[in-house]
Design brief:
single chain, about 0% strand, 2 helices, mainly alpha, 2 domains, rod-shaped
Length: about 70
């Protein structure tokens, strides 16, 4: 917890965050999501799910056409 003057109790300096471009990039990467929570993985799962829905719809339409042709 900070003291009233805004300085850290442990080391006495003010925490201002990263200032250099390298430090800012490192801070940004620290929040990077990986594995099943990454945007790329989520997009891939959505594309696969959509392909499955499209395939089921195509099969359903083909089944209806075959059923109607047999009448």
């Amino acid at each position: 917890m900070a003291m009233k003057n805004g300085r850290c109790r442990v080391h006495g300096s003010v925490c201002a965050g990263p200032r250099t471009p390298e430090g800012k990039a490192r801070a940004q990467r620290s929040n990077w999501k990986h594995c099943r929570r990454s945007a790329q993985y989520i997009a891939m799962r959505r594309a696969i799910a959509q392909a499955g829905r499209d395939l089921r719809e195509t099969m359903r339409i083909g089944e209806l056409e075959r059923r109607d042709a047999g009448r």
